[in-house]
Amino acid sequence: MQNRNISDIIEKYLKSILADSQQIEIKRSEIAEQFDVVPSQINYVIKTRFTIQNGYVVESKRGGGGYIRIAKVNLIDDTDVLDQLIDLIGESITSGKALQIIQSLYEDKLLTQKEANLVLATMDRTTLNFADKRLENVVRARILVSVLNRLRCAD
Amino acid sequence: MQNRNISDIIEKYLKSILADSQQIEIKRSEIAEQFDVVPSQINYVIKTRFTIQNGYVVESKRGGGGYIRIAKVNLIDDTDVLDQLIDLIGESITSGKALQIIQSLYEDKLLTQKEANLVLATMDRTTLNFADKRLENVVRARILVSVLNRLRCAD
DNA sequence: ATAATAATAGTCAATATTAGTCAAAGTTGG
DNA sequence: CCAACTTTGACTAATATTGACTATTATTAT
């Protein structure tokens, strides 16, 4: 619980700010300096932890006065996001990315914890356990899309 | 009785820590070094002694700052039903039989209606949609067994 | 206005740091 | 001796870190 990697720490820091405000605007170099990492690590953190799968939308601008803006999006009032997710999943998805999506659904209260755990169990790496991982990802995508579509129903 | 094997000793050590806390996070290499065994032996200990049947859920992460987390979970009172169902399913199950099992779980109040519908969606014929139905039934069995094992947890 | 320069952020691939899998070899109790 | 369990290690997979190079935007000089 103590010696997490620096990416996790940066993630946590950013999310703690986002807990209070709908969005934040950071200067990449400042955050990098603050945590003593190379600037591109900030891109890594964003790319792995602040994607639309995670329920975030990121915009940025380069040049003088450049910034990276991270905004939280809500899956509940935004049916478009559900469509976006399905679109994004496409034909194939890894176990890790699927986990991110399920976590987002839980955070946005579209799934209870038990529901999330059950759904996760169905598409876990060790559950599907295909020799051909490419095919496994295809099947996982079908399962996840099926779950997302099911969530459109009222009950 | 005195000189038990090293796997038993590692098991006992981990469980002694878990007696005080709900979960622990270990670094595989550290534990391996501490007991002077190869790292993969830690996996063996976990796989044989920290199963869901024993009331443990294990998560891990690789890469820098990686860890293995072992958490205690509360098991439901009657796991016999689950054991029997898992036995019944075996290696393969059709969509129809799976539906029957999910329905019975709903009637036994092990699943809410929404949970049942979600789980059904994941293993529906149109979701899995394998060309090779024999293989589809095998995968469905793995999914359903995984769900049943998840249901052992009270929370 | 245009060109040069400065100030940002982005990409990508090499390397490092973990954990997981699997099967062969060893051990032990019956 | 046999079957089940344990130990080992080579190979694989996932994740994180780093830095050189690129792209974009703003500012300054001409």
UniProtKB/TrEMBL annotation, chains A, B:
Keyword Repressor attached: yes
Positions of transmembrane segments: none
Keywords per UniProt: DNA-binding, Repressor, Transcription, Transcription regulation
One Pfam family per UniProt: CtsR
Sample GO molecular function, one term: DNA binding
Domain of life of the native organism: Bacteria
Keyword Repressor: yes
Domain CtsR N-terminal HTH: residue ranges: 5-74
InterPro entries the UniProt entry points to: CtsR, CtsR_C, CtsR_C_sf, CtsR_N, CtsR_N_sf
Any one GO biological process: regulation of DNA-templated transcription
Ranges for domain CtsR C-terminal dimerization: 77-149
Family: Belongs to the CtsR family.
Name assigned to this protein: Transcriptional regulator CtsR
Organism expressing this protein natively: Ligilactobacillus pobuzihii
